[in-house]
Amino acid sequence: MSYLLAPLCIALAVAAVSYLLFFRAARRDAAPTPPASLVLRGVAYSVAGVLLALAFYPLAPWFRRRCRPRPFPCPPAPDQSPVTPPVLLVHGLYHNVTAWTLYRRWLRAAGFTRVYCHGYSSWRTDFGLLVDELDEAVRDLVAAHPGEKPLLMGHSLGGLLIRGWLADAANQQLVSGAVTLGTPHQGSSLARLGAGSLARSLTFRGALIRNLEACEAPAEVGCVALYSPIDNMVVPQEGLHVTTPGWTLRTSPAVSHIWMLWDRNTARLAIDALRELAHGRAHAERECTATIPDTPDAPEAPGAAACGRNAEGGRDADETERARVRQDADYSRA
After folding, report:
1. Domain for residue 195, yes or no?
2. Domain containing residue 182
3. Cα–Cα distance for residue pair 40/224, rounded to 1 Å
4. How many domains does the chain have?
5. Among the residues of 100-206, which ranges form H helices?
6. For residue 194, how far is the Cα from the chain centroid?
7. Residues 263, 253 contacting (CB under 8 angstroms)
8. SS3 content of the chain, % helix, strand, coil (to 5)
9. Who's near 295: CB < 8 A, 6+ residues apart?
């Protein structure tokens, strides 16, 4: 019986402490606070979400084998060529790939049949190393699906890792866009209570966030940040707001931070955003194709050179610049 009570106590403690600090931050900043009934619903969502996360957590090894990109997948049949790009999902702090248990099902039902997950450890690492690991995962996915540009989706820290990877303008040419869920784009005051140096580096407006903002390029691909008005892990609420040019900020249903992973209505908004990004990229590529002259002697159409540059994104040509940017940002010491 005690084994069953322990997860419940953990879930209740997380919900109680986080929402108390949520209210405290709102009063300190003179920000409007949601109705008590809405917050009570958020507490219930938080408890249920933590319990589900703890229940699925041990299944990570089996789950990881099923959703890892293959270097050389079997090509689809000519009459079954996919119409949606592959999707790479990145979980948040302290979580693992089982975070996306329901999203994988929902994405496939929505037509995104090639869904992969990137996992990482939250211990004995730092932001810069995790961005490098994500870089490998994205390039493996691009190699597994030649000629296609995947979509990225991240929850919490996973979204911030995606933003850190997109900070390099050359990387943006490899993907169709990105969607983040409950991501602390400006950090969170609760990070000071976190276990491990990685968690504590995510403080609100801390060095890591300032360094990222100082070096990141404006988003040239579609990027959407979804946030909940009663997110209990990103405090203050301002921490959820991304200020990078090119990003779009959208409100999700009022649910707790972790329940965004289990909420069907939030998933609908996220999937709609992925569809928009996929269609927008396809439309842009058709326009690029239309601007390229058909004959070698024909004059180059306006915009053709820019389209050619956007179609590139090789790793070797930009490796030196990427290393310089990361060194300047000094993520690992933030």
Report:
1. yes
2. 1-71+83-334
3. 28
4. 1
5. 101-109, 127-144, 157-166, 169-172, 197-200
6. 20
7. yes
8. 55, 10, 35
9. none
User: Within 13 Å of residue 138, how many CA atoms lie on the same side as its CB?
Assistant: 29
Residue 166's CATH number: 3.40.50.1820
C-beta of residue 229 within 8 angstroms of C-beta of residue 257: no
Give the number of residues written for the chain.
Answer: 334
Tens-place pLDDT, residues 16-71: 889 988 888 877 877 777 888 888 899 999 999 999 999 999 988 887 776 765 54
B/e letters for 192-222, b = 16+ CB within 10 Å, e = fewer, are eebeeebbebbbbebebbebbbebbbebebb
In one letter, which amino acid is 197? S
The pTM (predicted TM-score) of the whole model is 0.81
List beta partners, residue 177: 151, 222
| Span 174-208, pLDDT tens digits | 999 999 999 999 999 999 999 999 999 999 999 99
